[in-house]
Amino acid sequence: MEIITQSPVRFTEGALQELMRLMSEPGFDKSNYLRIGVKGGGCSGLSYVLGFDQKKDADQQYEFEGLTFIMEKAHELYLFGMEIDWQGGLNSRGFTFRNPNASSTCGCGTSFAV
């Protein structure tokens, strides 16, 4: 599987730092890749997928500023141009998604409609 140079998504500096931190934790399975994608469900129709997983046949491999990740090629349609950020505050902690393709999003920010 070749690495595609044009990444369909962007990561903020905070998101890159948090992902690199997670991947450097003791016990992290180095055979896993960061997976970005969508799945059906959530209050707006589609939910974001962000986690670690094994590569599958339908996956495309990308790189963004030294971070390698995988995504099903079909998901690029829904996620192209999206920015992933990390919020480390007390009131809002976790990854957030800014998706220009979403026609609406839910209040929690983890699901969207196109």
From TrEMBL:
SUPFAM superfamilies: HesB-like domain. One of its GO terms (molecular function) is 2 iron, 2 sulfur cluster binding. InterPro entries: ATAP, ATAP_core_dom, FeS_cluster_insertion_CS, HesB-like_dom_sf, IscA_plant_cyanobact. Residues 9-109 form the Core domain. It comes from the Bacteria. One of its GO terms (biological process) is iron-sulfur cluster assembly. This is Iron-sulfur cluster assembly accessory protein. The lineage of its organism: Bacteria, Pseudomonadati, Bacteroidota, Chitinophagia, Chitinophagales.
